[in-house]
């Protein structure tokens, strides 16, 4: 049986995983590497595979009884403690030489995210969070105090992730926000945790895209749910509202409920 570990131990281990991911990613970034297309036509690179393989090795060595789920090597959530890995969130950015890609690692207990890591290798930026502690490069970070849509700085990865009624709802939100920026991938959630962005709203996501960001956003004072206001779990519907404050979050949920009736 594995010895009990403290939150400080997990934070240190997440920093180790971040260091490994950063080192590997930067050996490939803006260099020559092989790119393939997966069955969903999304790209995958040598770096994606190398990073996930290394992180799996480290987790299995430290916690041999824990289960691991990754974007590239698969797996399924099991009873007990699980780790969820997205080795490169933003592979399209990575391929294009854009430095906003990141590595995501989450530790789940009872199938819910408890610890999260957002590692942005090319910018040497890192967020770790759990409970009521969220850290950016080792210092405490907090979300903004924004409560009003007309003041909100909104981010999303790509406008093409929204379709049909979801696109119509997002357009209403975009027109209501102060500014909207695209192309942020997981970096947008880190910026939210540090108070630079007030809203991240997305759709068509998978478990490995989000499990790591939930503990960080919540620990920094924000709220993360699906568009209908439900907690994020392994069977979530692919939508997400991450907001700096509960009041701002509630306004977006209500807007979507009106614009996108169930």
From TrEMBL:
SUPFAM superfamilies for this protein: Carbohydrate phosphatase (SSF56655)
Keyword list, A-Z: Hydrolase, Magnesium, Metal-binding
Name listed for the protein in its UniProt record: 3'(2'),5'-bisphosphate nucleotidase
Transmembrane region(s): none
Superkingdom of this protein's organism: Bacteria
Endpoints of the signal sequence: none
The keyword Hydrolase belongs to this UniProt entry's keyword annotation: yes
Residues that, per the record, bind Mg(2+): 71, 86, 88-89, 209
GO molecular function: metal ion binding; phosphatase activity
Sequence similarity: Belongs to the inositol monophosphatase superfamily.
UniProt xrefs under InterPro entries: Inositol_monoP_superfamily, Inositol_monophosphatase-like
GO BP terms in the entry: L-histidine biosynthetic process
Pfam families reported for this sequence: Inositol_P (PF00459)
Keyword DNA-binding set for record: no
Cofactor(s) the record lists: Mg(2+)
Natural source organism: Caballeronia hypogeia
